[in-house]
Write a structure and sequence with these properties.
Pfam families: DUF899 (PF05988). Helices cover about 30% and strands about 20% of the residues. The longest helix is centred in the first third of the chain and has 30 residues, at about 10-40. The chain has about 240 residues and is of the alpha+beta class. The protein starts with 9 loop residues before the first helix and ends in a 31-residue tail after the last helix. It folds into two domains: about 15-40; about 45-200, Glutaredoxin, CATH 3.40.30.
Length: about 240
């Protein structure tokens, strides 16, 4: 907890809060302007025919739109032979699950895509209780093309292409969010992708933690999300 904050009178607190409110409103305006720039980005036509393994058989990228014109994809870190999905990606999915009905109301479909075979995805999906579209890219180069899967040799070099540049990355799978648009004639376009800390956009828990005195409270951890667990593995103290 921030023990350096002074204790003040209600009037002094109100003055400080109003000053901060001005900065918050400025950040809101900047965020709105940045969102407009994001929407104005050029788009890239998807020329390759991607097909995925799903619970209803082979499906195309266009099929994942489910009749809507926009698609949000979570690049979920789950590689072949893994015992379970990445806990940080699971943290993301917990947030996505709560939004899919609302996204659908705004003409947006959601799908998770992982490199693992479907037979390895489904048991973990059932364990976590997520009722979402989740497909396997094992038989395609979709993950490689969107720079979220790397060969062991790539990782060993200490330089993979991730988040729009070469950098060290410790795993063969990486997280991300990609956005696609579909025209009436069926043509699909890639409009946006975000990686690294950009995926925090879906992590509403972090935005809430930013409001409380301790904040994210990650300073003493080996890495920021070390505290995160799969939601069935938290050991919460009893309340009351």
């Amino acid at each position: 907890m921030n023990t350096t904050s002074p204790t003040v009178t209600p009037a002094q607190w109100l003055a400080a809060r109003r000053e901060l409110l001005g900065a918050e409103k400025e950040l809101t305006r900047q965020r709105d302007a940045l969102a407009a720039r994001r929407r104005a980005l050029p788009r890239v036509k998807i020329e390759k025919a991607y097909h995925f393994d799903s619970e209803r058989g082979r499906v195309s990228l266009a099929d994942l739109f489910a009749g809507r014109s926009q698609l949000m994809v979570q690049h979920f870190m789950l590689g072949s032979g893994w015992d379970e999905g990445c806990k940080s990606c699971s943290f993301m999915m917990d947030h996505f699950v709560a939004t899919t009905m609302h996204l659908a109301a705004r003409d947006v479909s959601f799908a998770a895509v992982s490199h693992a075979p479907l037979a390895e995805i489904l048991p973990f999906k059932r364990r976590m209780g997520w009722n979402v579209t989740w497909v396997s890219a094992a038989a395609t180069d979709f993950n490689e093309d969107f720079h979220v899967s790397f060969t062991p040799e790539d990782v060993a070099t200490g330089r993979v292409y991730y988040n729009y540049g070469p950098r060290p990355f410790p795993h063969e799978e990486a997280p991300g969010i990609s956005i696609f648009a579909r025209e009436d004639d069926g043509t699909v376009y890639h409009t946006y992708s975000t990686y690294g800390r950009g995926v925090e956009v879906v992590m509403g828990t972090y935005h809430l933690l930013d409001l409380v005195p301790k904040g994210r409270d990650e300073a003493g951890l080996d890495y920021g999300m070390e505290w995160v667990r799969h939601h069935d593995r938290y050991d919460h103290a009893p309340v009351g």
